[in-house]
Amino acid sequence: MADAARDDAALPLPAAIAAALEEDIVFGRLHPRERLIEEELAERFRATRHTVRQALAELERMRLIERIPHRGALVKAYSPEEVRQLYALREMLETQAAALIPLPLAGDALAPLHALQQQHAAAVAEGDTRAVFRADLAFHRALYAHCGNLFLAETIEELGQRAQVIRYANLRSQASMEWARDEHAAMLGALRAGDRAALLALCVAHFRPAREAYLGQHPTLLA
Amino acid sequence: MADAARDDAALPLPAAIAAALEEDIVFGRLHPRERLIEEELAERFRATRHTVRQALAELERMRLIERIPHRGALVKAYSPEEVRQLYALREMLETQAAALIPLPLAGDALAPLHALQQQHAAAVAEGDTRAVFRADLAFHRALYAHCGNLFLAETIEELGQRAQVIRYANLRSQASMEWARDEHAAMLGALRAGDRAALLALCVAHFRPAREAYLGQHPTLLA
DNA sequence: GTCAACGGCATTGTCGACAATCCCGTCGCC
DNA sequence: GGCGACGGGATTGTCGACAATGCCGTTGAC
Asked: ipTM of this predicted complex?
């Protein structure tokens, strides 16, 4: 079990608890199938059980946990086949979205993306994995927001959330974080240059490795 | 405001309330922007406010309503531009899914679909719009379940739910219900014959009209 | 006459306590 | 010795009451 609540004060309490648990799941401090007990969490976060309950509902909405009536909440586990299907859909959507981004991207549209990329790079440099995680999410959201279709962008984000355990398993290796950083930079270059083919290739190449690594590491996870 | 709770007993109470409200929204008994007041609903469904709250959370998850903290729940409204984007994504996903269904579909895979189509046809014959609505949902879910990608099927269903107000605005016209029925039959034919081109054409043609009708009818709905 | 501050009312959000459910070890019967 | 019924303990679900919030009409000052 992980350490106590991080002070993400300022955001509503249930959201803060959900965020903390989300990180616990992403960073493997809570493993698939592990049970989440409301009262324990309430104590850990010094909140009422009611508040914890709301946080669990939020995590269920994000599909990071599964709740079985009268039985409680489990960290969700994906079978290799599910991972393959999830990634197939993500690839299809992200490819489509990348194809829809107007190119070249105007300078004032590029600036915020660039700022996010810098944030990500800084977090990588400091080895602050939590910040890397958040910055990476923000970068990808901002990137696909430019596809011009609100629903497509939302769907991509939701599926990305579901895949978090897989996507961010590599946050333990400095090398792969640096890889991601450099690919982000390359994407910005393609956006600026208006090089559609390069952008598409980068988007696909960007998330394939995580899938492979996960499937290699959990070869026969039954579920 | 609509009439009292329908006896969808047997399913958990919050789900039953959510289903009833869902139908109210789909059939236009609750219009976009209309406010949902917890206590009124509690009285109407003879449930506690707590139960109603859960139902609202469920409807929010389905994106049929919007909840603003301390201000309550509103039936969600879509601007014409949002409708266009939503439909663009739906078209893309349903086309892809239809392209992935293995053809021709084996007989024992066809049978359940056929049964659902019959249910739909029966409901159309009786003019039971509620049943038509439910049967149509079931038919499409079963159809796209055959695409072989769980997540794609789920995503299609979720986006379909979000589009319900648009999709089912035509349930007030007997003619369009009969149209839908005939198209379902044609889809089954294409599945059986293994005619991919026909299947794709049907899937696209099947939901375009609802979009046009909605956009025509709500020409400048601000939002 | 206009505008800002106040206060009452409708509504939503949270709490603590209690009820319902399920898992699992124990007992008794065959 | 195996197996089903029973029951205790842990855990989740629900309730009624109370607190917090925001809207809106009213008031009063300038």
From this structure: 0.89
